[in-house]
Amino acid sequence: MRPNRPLLGQLAELDARFASFSLVAQRPGILRTLAVILAHSGDSWFWLLGLIALWLAGSTDWKYRAEVMAVGILLTALVVLAIKFIVRRSRPPGEWGGIYRRTDPHSFPSGHAARAMMLATLGLGLGPAWFGLLLLAWAPLVALARVSMGVHYLSDVIAGFALGVLMGLLVLSGFR
User: Fold this and answer.
1) Which of 146, 11, 120, 104 is nearest to 65 (CA)?
2) Who's near 61: CB < 8 A, 6+ residues apart?
3) What is the pTM of this model?
4) 3-state DSSP call for residue 84?
5) What span, in angstroms and rounded, lies between the C-alpha atoms of 5 and 28?
6) d(Cα 92, Cα 122) in Å, to the nearest integer?
7) Which of 30, 31, 93, 172 is the most buried (most CB within 10 A)?
């Protein structure tokens, strides 16, 4: 990074370098397949359907967790959407993720990273410990998959992580 460049320019340059280094969207193989699965595993519709199923079949404790997580998903989505419309950062160029590119052309912050980290924060706060740790291990994989598939920059997912922790803590404080 050049010291005479503004900080935002330096971050953009770093984002572009990391994105080109980590891009697997155009490389067929097991790594790409895993990245696709992980990138989609953070989709809100997927989580909401799973939480509905958990609420219908789960014990009282799991119903409560499902309710809190569903509220967290919806609130986080609203905050992410508001920030995206304020910032309006375009997604990285690429072909993969057409549905994301058409329905949500803005990349900052990453909603998937925010959702994943918010869910991990809730999982850690609500327990059991194994559940929170499992979500905490999964969250960075979702974020890295979003970058490696070319729909986000690294700074998008870092900001999403920070927002996700904040949203998780806010939701937990509202339900205590």
Assistant:
1) 120
2) none
3) 0.82
4) helix
5) 37
6) 30
7) 172
Q: Is the per-residue pLDDT at 7 higher than 60?
A: no
Sign of CA dihedral 125, 146, 160, 50: negative
36 forms beta bridges with: none
The structure tokens listed for 84 are: 């995206």
Residue 22 has pLDDT above 50, yes or no: yes
Residue 95 · residue 25 · CB < 8 Å: yes
Read off the pLDDT band of 12 (50, 70, 90): low
| Nearest-10 crossing angle of helices 129-148, 111-126 | 170
Vertex 22: Cα angle to 17 and 28 (nearest 5): 140
Higher-confidence residue: 90 or 60?
Answer: 60
What distance in Å separates the CA atoms of residue 55 and residue 61, rounded to the nearest whole number? 9
Task: Say if CB 19 and CB 153 are below 8 A apart.
Answer: yes
Q: How far apart are CA 36 and CA 29, in angstroms?
A: 11
Per-residue pLDDT reduced to its tens digit, 35-50: 788 888 888 888 999 9
pLDDT band at 103 (very low <50, low <70, confident <90, very high): confident
